[in-house]
Records
---
Amino acid sequence: MHSAVPHDTPNSRKHDSVYEIKTLILLGLGFGLVGLDRWIVAPLFPHMMRDLHLNFQQLGSLIGILSVAWGVWAIAMGPVSDRIGRKRILVVTMVAFSLLSSLSGLAASFASLMLIRAVMGVAEGAFTPASVAATGEASLPSRRGLNQGLQLSMFSLLGLGFAPILATQLLRVVPSWHWVFMISAVPGLIVAALIARTLREQPRSASSAAQADMARPRWISLFGSRNVWLAMLAILCAMAGIFVVSAMVPTYLVEVLHLDTQEMGFVVSAIGFGGFVGSFGVAGASDFIGRRNAALLAFAGATALLYLFAHTGPNPQLLFALLFGVSVFALGLLGLFSGPIATEAAPVGLVASSVGFVSGAGEIFGGGLAPAAAGFVAQHFGLPSTLTLALGGLIAGGVVSLFLVETAPRRRRAAATETALGMKEDAA
């Protein structure tokens, strides 16, 4: 077993903090643009629906196909980035998904949109593990968790927070929704050029080389961990809840509650801003109250607030507040399950595999199939029924979380202390 490298090693004393900050900013922006390009289709869909004669089921399919491709390629490309390095993958995939987002504005049919979105999912899924790894490698070990949390939170902030506002405001100054997609490619191309200029390929450390020479643990041993299975099921439920909401609520607000485009953009932005807060809040709270308790409270909070949202009329301020709360809890759950719970559930040497399995399976089934199912529900039973589907996912996730084994270090130490004291009292 290898011990962790101390923080005060010579390598740490030579740490380049300026490079760390540059890398965090660029890859945080990069991951934020992944979110923007992924989710900008939702607030634009009411306009696309009229021009391309699309229906609600097709909206769910457009959201779902990208998630499925993302999940598969996030799992597959992690080992590839370990072999060939991060920089080439990051630059190529960022250019690719930026150009593909622009091409969405030229699509003239549902079939062409589906193809573009599927290939976007491949590029964005490949970008994800390489970018998270590169941020970790550039970070001082004592700041690695914070930096990766900041990077991942940009997905919610830009993709689900600012994207609805940006898209709906641009519609006021450009001729049509086609132009919004084409403009969205520009920031990604700029950031890709800056990554190509700034990012260094990380040389293999002595410890990583030694580990590579050891017999690799078998990936199948993941399935012997109870919490890996439970985390996979629970994140699937959480994603089914929040991704159905993210996909369907923009159209629900316009078609059912009859908000105008700008009001809809304001309300939907709550998903991103709430998710930004939840990315830190839920996982951070779990350090003190335990992973299981944090999961149960977050599922309960998201369920209660989504129920209130579904029974609220056309009041943009109240809708924003309720949706903000739903997102704090639901998107916070994604970080909790794919971060500390998956990490602590992993067998020795399989942390990255555990995280990839949990998050990838969640993307494929919760992020991919659930929005497609929601599109079918909306088409045949009405848009309000999609909120009921999302509620069902959140309730199911709470039930699954009841069976989690507590792994938070503070809680485990407290439990061990209580057990030791109890044994002493019994002996006395």
Note: The two ends are 38 Å apart (CA to CA).
---
Amino acid sequence: MNVLLFLIPIALLLGLFGLAAFVWSLRTGQFDDLDGAAARVLFDDDLPESER
């Protein structure tokens, strides 16, 4: 039972840390354009016009 005195606060701190990281990612715009990065992989913008 003494282990619970350590595990419960650690679990709460880890949960708060995860929530803070999620809120930070929302505020900095990490989830603004989910489809853009997936589509951008398919474009070969680094090739010159003659090689396309």
Note: The chain is about 60% helix and 0% strand.
---
Amino acid sequence: MDDAPVNLKLMRLLLTHEGYEVRTAERAEDALLMLSSYRPELILADLQLPGMNGLEMTRRVKQNPQTKAIRVVALTACAMAGDRERALGAGCDDYISKPIDTAALAFRVRQLLAPDAGTPAKDEAQRPGEPAQAIFGSEIETLRRGFLHEGSEYCRQLLDSMKSGFDAARAAGQLHQWVGSAALLGHSEISLLVQRAEQLLREEPLVVPELREVVSDLLLSFSELSGDAFAPVPDYLAEAVAGKRVALVGFTAERADGMCTVLERVKARPLLFSEGDDPASEAIQNCDLVLFHVRRDTLQSRWVQADEPFHASIKLVFAGEQRDLVALATPVRSRAVDFIVGRSDTQEVLLRIAFAGSRHVVAAPAPAPAIATEAPPRPRMAAGSPRILLADHDHIVHTVVRMALQNHGMSCKAADNGLTALSLIRSEQPHVAILDVDIPGMDGYEVLAAIREEKIPTRVIVLTALGREKDILRAFNLGADDYVTKPFNPFELVARLKRFLL
């Protein structure tokens, strides 16, 4: 249990590889809810969590007669004096300080689950183990790319905020996540710099010049490791976006600068507007696409007020953090043709812009003209509880998605292979099918092709790994309505579903 998605994903991969059944949660409240139907032998709990902290969760686990036998191990990224004593006093069975050595993690878990199994042979106890990258390859590279890009973007934002409006608590929360993520991904230099920044944030008074220097070093490390500044943009994306007039409404100076850099690289034409500008103005109406930056300072804008008239001719994309997008009223969210959640990398932003402008015309990577796919049959609007079919071979994804959909009034059936998924789609014709492209039996592309060939009136969202743009292009050429990249945000998936169902 950890509030950093990268930590959760990587630890789950490592422990699953060792043969353990692993479930994850980002909040203590979610973990306690999960315990009503699932009894793990061990809980790895971060002490610093949003909402209920890890210590309070441990007390509740140990006070409940049905769960008190579960072993709980506390994790923390900033080992303060007395932390171990507080953890043990709350009922934790052990305590591990971050950063955690990935090679030693499985060995430590085996020790915790089988303390009487004896001491391992000397060569087993001391061998370094395979690095995570060698075991998981592209999955780890996907996490690494996302982590490094997010880090470089947030460091720029943090440096800018030091001029005015600096939020030390928010900065500390983000840095706390990075300590574990950096170490698990093998970037010890970042982990050390983050720990130094955390130490400075705890000192009173705060020495801003010294903190700025450390964050600048962090930005340099993130940028050098990610190579974002030199990453080429695929030709098919550049061609799809080139020449488009893109209105950027309500963006902070820092985010606007970043978006303009991305758009100008592909010869698009970004135009800047204030959140107070009239949506009906000729300048905005003449744009091919409008990106509105949803944040606390723009939530009172007429652009995001449910009782304000909205011009349906505008192709609107909402960009922002999850917490701000969640704050939008449902009728307002339904205005968007797409969402850019968090700080997506360059290619993800360009993909969203390209497909928001034209959902069924995709620029192919080959020199041949783009293929205009046949529009899918007109889908039925949901009456009552919308029916969703999820096809994914990962049962943890099944659990997380089903809970998220049920919380939003949707019913969900799951299939772990393509043959079963297609059979259910044929017999039940759900409103939306969510297809992982890598499911066994028939893969997601084959299921999608069959849905379109048989003219089944079901919307299709494909799931694919981050950084696999060709997967997304292939899916859109086959008639997909949208895509979500893994690891995905449950809110983002729900928001995309609701856009089809309203």
Note: Confidence is low (pLDDT under 50) at residues 117-137, 360-376.
